[in-house]
Amino acid sequence: MASKYQAPRGTFDVLPADARARRRVEATAAEICARAGYEPIATPAFEDTALFERGVGRSTDIVRKEMFTFEDKGGRSITLRPEGTAPICRAYVEHGMHKLAQPVKLCYGGPFFRHERPQAGRYRQFHQLGIEAIGTDSPLADAEAIMLLAELLAELGVPGVELRLGSLGSPGARSAYLEELKAHLRAHEADLSKEVRERIELNPLRAFDADDEGTRGVMASAPTIVERLQGEDAEHFAEVRELLEAAGVGFEIDPTLVRGLDYYTRTIFSFVCAELGAQSEVGGGGRYDGLIEQLGGPPTPAIGWAAGIERILLALGEQPEQAGRDAFLAVADPGQRRRALALAGELRHAGLTAEVDLAGRGLKGQLKHADRIGARRVLILEADGSAQLRDMRSGEQSPVDTASLIEAIGGERP
RNA sequence: GCGGCCAUAGUUCAACGGUAGAACUUCGCGUUGUGGUCGCGACAAUGAGGGUUCGAUUCCCUCUGGUCGCCCCA
Length: 414
Prior knowledge:
Elements (H helix, E strand, L loop, with lengths): L15 H20 L3 E2 L5 E3 H7 L5 H5 L3 E3 L5 E4 L4 H10 L9 E10 L11 E10 L4 H18 L4 E7 L3 H17 L6 H5 L14 H8 L4 H4 L2 H16 L5 E2 L11 E9 L7 E7 L3 H4 L7 E7 H8 L8 E7 L5 H13 L4 E3 L6 H10 L2 E7 L5 E5 L5 E4 L4 H6 L4
Parallel strand pairs: 1-5, 7-8, 12-13, 12-14
Antiparallel strand pairs: 2-4, 3-4, 5-6, 6-11, 7-9, 9-10, 10-11, 14-15, 15-16
Helix pairs in contact: 1-5, 1-12, 5-10
The protein binds one RNA strand of 74 nucleotides through helix 3, strand 6, strand 10, strand 11 and helix 12.
């Protein structure tokens, strides 16, 4: 074994058995997005490194240590995209999409890259589906986006999904809150765990997730950002909640919800699946009202989310479905091969799945192969030009006229 | 980036420091033209590199990869 070459660390091959389930996820997402008026967009797999530094934020883990960055032959710093929102905002600005009818509603999917230690549900090349609604700050857009992800996960049948909802407020309110929280943590520094103490300045919100008793005691009396929301921020969040309730989307307010990207403002949310282990988020996102402007466009509010295809597949579990074939065209005599291929062409043209023997097997081998690939019928072409149609499930076999083959095979599809 | 566990046919598992076995899969055969079940047979492996030893799949080290957790996120 041990082939000389293997897929690079954190990457994987999608084999045919997995590809079917994967396609179903992609097709379901495309349909749900299309029904809600989100139109497909695709951006390059790599961008200027500066786009992510500015968009995602220099202090984020993604930018600090997870990007695949290299210099191209022209001396430019290039980065394989670690996420999809910044590139789409770049495209929005670059193509003057603010002149289109607002909001611009977009959906996308494809590979993303982060240099992390691989783990269950975490890869270095992974795939996301996502949507962005750019050009409106209405809570309706937030609710609609969340509903679509909820619908996608429900329609796919992802089990044990929970929606966590939070709000970061506007940037001003957020930084004021963070100062208040840091002050609270510093005041109780002695009771905190070492990890939390070291992260007070870097990421104080993480203290809410700590396991140790000391930190938990301190956090019980800590202020939460949701409590501190004021004015329009508070109204906005209240409206999002009402809209979701009215739409029958269940959620849980998580005042400690954190996102690792700097561009989020106001609404943030996360769909988690308890059955998934450490990497339990199947999808998440939020509002990013300042990003477009940050990237040089006009001030433009927006919201979006991304869902991880691998995590969805993982949550769905193994479902090895054999593709099956409507018909296999066997030949009793090699002289019939030409006719078999021609007939297969006709069946395929009629929308049926049909295969012929490509390995030069004998009749016995052809039957066996037909069984293995899940053919429901086998047409046996006789040397004299006549034909037999065999039902592989019942074993019944009778002569057929190849002129009416399509009806004979297509008639009783399960 | 940090820690734990792991690495044998395509796959799932065996082998006191002493001849690497099995099951499933694949392919072939079980007379002359018919799959599944059954029987027989064949192909096929110690991740890589060092070390200890008369001898290493087994013990030690390094690397590579996987896996789980931390961190973070999809």
